[in-house]
Structures are given as C-alpha cells and as structure tokens.
Design brief:
Helix content: 40-55%
Shape: rod-shaped
CATH architecture of the largest domain: Up-down Bundle
CATH class of the largest domain: Mainly Alpha
Strand order of the largest sheet: 5-13-8-9-10
Oligomer: single chain
Number of helices: 7
Largest sheet: 5 strands, antiparallel
Strand content: 15-25%
Number of domains: 3
Number of strands: 13
Radius of gyration: 41 Å
Amino acid sequence: MRVSTYAFYRSGELSLMQRQSALLETQAQIASGKRINTPADDPVGAANAMSTRTALSQLDQFKSNQDRASYLLNLGESTLGQFVDTAQTIKERLIAAGDGAYSNAERRAIATDLQGILAQMVGLANSSDGAGGYLFAGSREATAPFSQSGLAISFNGDDTLARLEVSSNRLQQVKQAGDDLFLKLRPGNGTFTTTAASGNTGSGVIDPGSVIDPTQVTGSSYTIGFSVAAGATTYQVVRASDSAVVASGTYSAPASIDFDGQHVAISGTPANGDTFQVAPAGYQSIFDTLAAAVQLLSKGVTTSADKAQLQTSLSGLNASFDQVLDHLSLKRAEYGSALSELDSYAKLNDDRQLQYKTRLSAVEDLDLAQATGELSRRQTTFQAAIQSYSMISKLSLFNYLG
C-alpha cells in the first residue's frame, strides 16, 4: 500500500488535534470542577444529572412554599391568640357586670368598653396576610372580609380555603375562612339556649343548662311554665314539636329540672304565668354575641324582674363566650397541628435535597486528584507528539540525496 506525503501529514495533524482536544477537555474539567461540562462528555450521565436537577428545582419550590405556608400559619395562629385574649377580657367584663352592687351607669360604662372591643375584634378579623390580601377572606382578596355598621357586622368573604403545595401531592391549607372561624358558633351551652320571657314579672332565673344524655336530645324547643295557686308554685315543661308535657312538679327554689336528656336549674321566685324558653342552639357569630351583651348592659335595671332578666341573660352570654373560647382554642390548635405537619415536610424536603445533591455530585463532580494526574499525562503525551511531528515533518527525500 502506498502512503502519500499528504496522508502522512494529515494523519499526524489529526493525532495532534485529538491529543490537544483531550488536553483541553481535562483542563476544562479541572477549571469547572465537573466531570460533565457538555452532554457529549457523558450522554447518560448528563441525562441523569438533568433529571436530578429537575427534582432539586421542584424541592426548591416546595421549600419556598413551605416558608410561605409557615409565615401564614404563624400569622393566623398569632391573630387567633389575640382573639382568645380578647374573648377572655369580655368574659371578665360580663362577670363584673353581674355584680348586684353595680349601678346602671357602671353597666353602661362596661357596655361602652365592650363596644370598643367589638371594633377591635373586627380589626383582628380583617388582619392582612402581608401580601396585599387578608387572612380570613377566603378567595376574595380585594376587600376586607368584615364590615361594621354600628353593632351589625357583615361578612364579605367566602369559604374558599387557600392551599400551597408543600410536598409531592400534598396541599397544605394555609388560611381559614372567616365565616367558619367567627360566624358559625353555637351559643348557650353549645346544644341549647335558655331565655326568660320578656313579660316575666317574678324573680326567677334560669341557668344555661347542660346535656345529661345526648341520645335523648330531640332538637325540639320547650317552654317551662309556672303557675301559682293557693300558695303553691308548680311547673310544666311542654315540648313544642308535639305539645307533650315532658316534665312537671312542684317548684321550690332552687329546682333542678330534667327532660329529654337535658338539665336546667331555676332559682328565685317565678310569678304566676312566667315562662322560660329552651331552644336548640343555632349558629351565632362572635360579633352578634358581643353586640347582644352591649345591648343588654345598655338597658336600665329597676325592678326585681329586671334584675332576674339581667342575670338570666348574663348567665347565657357567659356560657356563650365559654363556647367562643373553646371554639377559638380548637381552631388555634388546628394551626398548631398544621405547623407541626409542615415541620415534618420541611425535614423530609431537606433530607431529599441532600440525597439528590449527593447523587448529582456522584454523577458529575470531578475526582480532582485523578484529573490532575490525567492532565499531567496528557500534557506529556501532547508535548511528545508535537516534538515528534515537528521533526518528522521536516524530513523529505532530499535529505537523503547528496
């Protein structure tokens, strides 16, 4: 086979170029600290590295969402904590208002104080989320969720709950709806309420009552009526749903009356024809409950019947605010539970990030000691190739003619 001079030189040049390319590749790897700088360096490894980086990018987004969720949950929990403190203050005011030595002016002063607390509670309910929205507005972020007109409070939000994806296939609720937090509470003892008829003339007082057997509760309303004849006072409890008399007897103060799984206590001296109502507890907002307290304490009390009405109403309001405190504490606990769950996801996210970063390092990071040795070897071979080619390229047939 004949080898032409051109082919001989071209082969030498290609060999030099390949050795130079290998040398430059090693130098680039050492400069970047990466074994793979382009997909051509290792197509399979490059694909694995890209897949790992995509997973890391998703985990970074989860981390960002977790930080945002933690901020909103802590803000909501803190706001509910202030609500709980405010509700406890209201309880203290109501207990003080029940002092028989208080004058009408003193009770009106408490009513004025409670009216200011109502405005404060509306302000808390309209707390900002720090990003132009509201904590308790649902999806209606453009306007404040609650508006006030005198003692009337209106809800302008909705019950759509904001969620953030904090882990794979896990959406974390980060806000609670204002209607569920502040509007849907059960007054009285949480199952039923007790009230005195406005026309009562005696000094009888009924307590908020309690449930003694939930399986017997009918959900009906009841009227407890009193009759006074020949110096004896009797009572009857009539169920509204079927007009049945479910309890009756002779009254002597104080009296405990049980009917259909419910218990109430009545004290004082009811007059002939006086009645008390026992009704299922429907929904009532925190604001309406407080507004009722303001209206009650703004009224003047003169007769013993007025005082009995006041005591019955205050007793019911105190029980209602016990329900408020229980409700808010439960909702606050839900925030705490969500924060605890979020911490678990954050730890899991950190663990996965470490795993993926370790995997990425194993795929593309350079063994510096090995690469340094390889660089030295390739530099030596490249220099030797240059010198060899330089000498050989100068030879020709004329060097041997003489």
